[in-house]
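Example 3.2
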Amino acid sequence: MSAASTAPAGECDLVLAGARVIDPETGLDGVRAVGITGGTITSVSEVAPPARTVWDVSGTVLAPGFIDLHSHAQSITGLRLQALDGVTTALELEAGVLPVGPAYAQAEAEGRPVNFGFSASWTDARMHVLDGVPLDRDSALDLFSTHQSLPGWRAPADDRGVARILDLLEEAVDEGALGMGVLVGYAPESGRAEYFRLAGLAARLGVPTFTHTRYISTEEPGTSLEGALEVIAAAAGSGAHMHMCHINSTSTRMIDEVASAVEAARGTGVRVSTEAYPYGAGATVIGAAFLEPDGLSRMRLTPRDVTYLATGERVADADRLAELRATDPGGLAVVHLLDEDDPADVAVLERSFTLADTVIATDSMPLVQPGGALAPDEWPVAPGLITHPRSVGSYARTLRWLVRERGALTLTDALRRSSLLPAQILEPAVPAMRRKGRVQVGADADLVVFDPETVTDHATYTHVAASTGFRHVLVGGTPVVRDGDLQTGALPGRAIRSGDR
């Protein structure tokens, strides 16, 4: 691919003219005209090539569309909200799914506004092997939350059980899974030997793993640092690419120690990558192992730092938290790990992004109705629905808060972390990703056009509201957002599978 070209023979389908074009890979940063033909970038030039349609996008920035490695919002509605935040590819890689084939088939049959893909779910495999949970088409996307209360999947497996779990993951990769999603933090007693064997399998198959680390704590034993070091050790000992999810929420106040360990490991050639989202609160199921009432103090939390989304209540005390965990273990909750009004905590959050090459990823969550049920997949979003604001505004918040207001990241670096870096993490397993995350001739026309001075997030912890300032979002050359408006008839998203070229 090339960052610049002369006009191609014949007319382009569409030219976007006059924007400041930023290509994170080549360093291009200048006013250009970008020509698109058949879903591919066919021209990046100072003089606009002939085209059937020309859009004047003067005064904006044109960049690669954002690639979210961590999206649990795998519905048409959830992905529309992400498209309004500049996302052109949204992948479910931390939790993953099983079976993978039906999840891909369902999404392809329904259509998606942005590109999509899945990892193989380690927790789903464990639920199947250790608790007998069936793996079928209807359960592929919500098996984890539905079966939280079962007793076996959190415990260690014997050698035969581990072999069966790993066989399921290998079969899923054969079906196109983009790697292995490992929620080891939800099963901290599962055993380190199994995790290391999983890393070895990933290395043999040439796919990455995506880990929610084993511990969140500042107290020994079992600190956030220990959890991060397990991932680093598995990468060093196996040769696998190990990716640590949301280091902002799993490292919390140990981010400096975690960042130092990651940087040192990378310096010796260990393949470990990281991601973060720009919020002080996390979201999870209320039955998560790390929300055990007796263990909250290890994270410097109390039950009132947990909001139960079904009722909107801040959990009053340990007894109420225990009740909710017993009656609705799969219910969604927001956990206020850091105080976004406390300058010291804001500085801790910010340091997650000063670690070099930390990818921006959202950990986007589904929309929830009053009462706790998942919202129907309907557009427009009905009043009264709720989700974590990261599901709707992570990229706009990055551009507003970390770039424009705080100056913690340059615009080019923020775009690089949102597009090129996630593409590069996947490229060894998915060669087709070499065409994403770039504004170059031959790249896929997954593009975002935005006003860097006004782009902003609007979602809060109590109100769902789409980001604004993204003028155009194109997926494979098809506008999903045009002049700031969602194009509800556009479902151009394509499946991304391991081995795709």
